[in-house]
Design goal:
By secondary structure, the chain is an alpha/beta fold. 32% of the residues lie in helices and 18% in strands. The two termini are 12 Å apart. 38% of the residues are buried.
Length: 238
């Protein structure tokens, strides 16, 4: 571990063009459950599997059940940024980090001070009326009953990408641009199992691919450096 940390420190010190690609593991140390770990949402018992509830079809067919699960498990509004979020914000402030491409929907990168955050799967902090497009914050959803209603009578939908829905084209285009131009790509807290998001790293053309994750990923063999462990703990030591 110490040797890996020293190599990572050296890589970071020698560049000012880093892009970070992150997943749920970045936020687990802030108390937000991921989907695939032992304690994740996929291993808890509900009437329906989480991937079914969080699908476009389920949202349309059973919206009240969707929002019951959504309020209970997806709105972690008291969560605070951890060492990984803070370190990334620091690197951006120092001019080293050019962008964060995240699969997370919790807004913790922005809460830590990061500005250029590309949210592939949207954000729980943004909610819109499907009829008039009026904006509502996450507290409105949390404190509402049943299906949240707009003042115009329309339903309010979270601005998150559900299963069966496509990613935002503009966000994808920007993510590809940053990743393809990065000198260093750091991938952290993700199993790289969710597509199409995980496929974006195929656009990386640099020479320093770093993977930081608790468990092995399908891309470990391609990496110049693999650091296995908790990303918050590792980043706090940089």
């Amino acid at each position: 571990m110490e040797e890996s940390l020293e190599r990572l420190k050296d890589i970071i010190e020698k560049t000012d063009n880093i892009v970070f690609f992150g997943g749920a593991g970045v936020s687990t140390e802030s108390g937000i459950p991921d989907f695939r770990s032992v304690d994740g949402l996929y291993n808890q018992k509900y009437d329906y599997p989480p991937e079914t509830i969080l699908s476009h079809t389920f949202y349309r067919r059973m919206p009240e059940e969707f929002f019951r699960f959504y309020r209970d498990k997806m709105l972690c509004l008291d969560a605070q940024p951890n060492a990984a979020h803070r370190k990334l914000a620091q690197w951006e402030e120092e001019g080293k980090l050019k962008a964060i491409v995240t699969q997370n929907i919790d807004g913790l990168h922005q809460k830590a001070g990061s500005r250029n955050v590309l949210e592939l799967h949207g954000s729980v902090l943004r909610n819109y009326c499907e009829r008039c497009h009026k904006f509502y914050d996450a507290e409105y959803i949390l404190n509402s009953q049943g299906v949240p209603q707009c003042s115009c009578g329309g339903s309010v939908k979270p601005d998150v990408v559900l299963y069966e829905e496509g990613l935002n084209n503009e966000t994808i285009t920007r993510a590809v641009e940053y990743i393809s131009k990065a000198d260093v790509l750091i991938i952290g807290g993700t199993s790289l199992a969710v597509y199409p998001a995980a496929g974006l790293i195929d656009y990386y053309r640099g020479n320093k691919l770093v993977l930081v994750n608790k468990t092995p990923t399908p891309r470990d063999r391609e990496a110049d450096l693999v650091v296995q462990g908790s990303i918050g703990e590792i980043f706090s030591r940089l």
